[in-house]
Amino acid sequence: MKITSSVSDIRKIVLNWKGRGLSVALVPTMGFFHGGHLALMRAAGSKVDRIVVSLFVNPAQFGPNEDLNRYPRDFERDAGLAEDEGVDCLFCPDARDMYPSGFQTWIRVEGLSQGLCGASRPEHFRGVATIVAKLLIIVQPDIAIFGQKDFQQLQVIRRMVSDLNIPVNVIAHPVVREPDGLAMSSRNIYLDTRERESALSLFQALRLAEEMVARGCRSGPEVVRAVRKHIQSYNKTKIDYVFLGDPKTLKQKQDIVGETLLALAVWVGKTRLIDNTLLNSNEQIKLQNINIR
Question: How many Cβ atoms sit within 10 Å of the Cβ of residue 146?
């Protein structure tokens, strides 16, 4: 596996591959790899000839009181895990190269970034859209793979790629979970034992909503109330939002008709967690045996 922090080097590497007729995937990450990241790498390997993983803790997507300085980092561990997954190049740019002195150009995806996480993190998606656009321009992959856990981020990136005519196929990968259902996240490391138990309320609330829809409930407010009640029954939980709406436009819906996004953001102690599911009124959902107290 090649490792480089140089923009010119990664361009040369990819240009060489493409000159030989090889297809390329980009998996953008902020590092501290977990099973979700590794699943994205494996998915990339099943679709293309060469895999580039970017590892960059992007300062532009952190707010002034967020966890940029304490965000978990372990480069040696990450490099070993990426190599074990067959990654061909690990691209680890420096913030001074991504945002050099005098940097003034930002990308905003107006409508899709306004609600959900954008409401409490107003500059977050400006930072996400800008760094993803830069990575796509630098690497010029055939495909780019993103996890569906960050559903709003996925839709923002899809819209940006479409609006700016960036020639890349954006592929979504399903949420990857721990055996007990907790969505994998680098920030899970912040949770202590009791908080880890309370964090399960997110997944359980999603399953509760799926069960309600499978039994015929189509009332959005009724589902939202049940989800909120369940999460609030756990210690150390504080709801940022419970969103029910159209998965493409991210506009709220009152009735669960067709495919409907249920997305959550919840503070568990000092850790902000997100999760989501797609409810479908047209299908009988196969429920897992999850203990919902």
Answer: 21
What pLDDT, in 10s, does the model give residues 34-84?
999 999 999 999 999 999 999 999 999 999 989 999 999 999 999 999 999
Looking at the annotation, which residues are catalytic? 37
DSSP 3-state of 113: coil
- Count how many Cα atoms sit within 13 Å of the Cα of residue 89 in the half-sphere of its side chain: 25
**How far is Cα 293 from Cα 235, in angstroms, rounded to an integer?**
13
The DSSP output letter for 219 is B
Q: Which residues pair with residue 262 across a beta bridge?
A: 244, 277
CA distance 79 to 202: 31
Q: Say which CATH superfamily domain 2-173 falls into.
A: HUPs (3.40.50.620)
**pTM score > 0.85 for this model?**
yes
Determine the Cα–Cα distance for residues 3 and 74; give it in Å rounded to an integer.
Answer: 15
* b/e map 156-169, b = 16+ CB within 10 Å: bbbbbbeeeebebe
Q: Are the beta carbons of 277 and 268 closer than 8 angstroms? A: no
Q: Give the torsion through C-alpha atoms of 66, 108, 38, 267, to 10 deg.
A: 30
Residue whose C-alpha is closest to residue 93's, from 146, 154, 138:
138
In the predicted model, residues of the chain with pLDDT beneath 50 are 285, 287-290
What are residue 62's phi and psi, to 5 degrees?
-105, 135
Superfamily of domain 186-280: Pantoate-beta-alanine ligase, C-terminal domain (3.30.1300.10)
Question: What pLDDT sits at residue 246?
Answer: 97
Long-range contacts of 268-271 (CB under 8 A, 24+ apart): 268/191, 268/195, 268/198, 268/199, 268/236, 268/237, 269/190, 269/191, 269/192, 269/195, 269/198, 269/236, 270/190, 271/187, 271/188, 271/190, 271/191, 271/195, 271/199
Q: Taking the domains of the chain in order of start, what are their residue ranges?
A: 2-173, 186-280
- How far, in Å, CA of 121 to CA of 218, rounded? 30
β-strand pairing of 259-268 with 89-91: unpaired
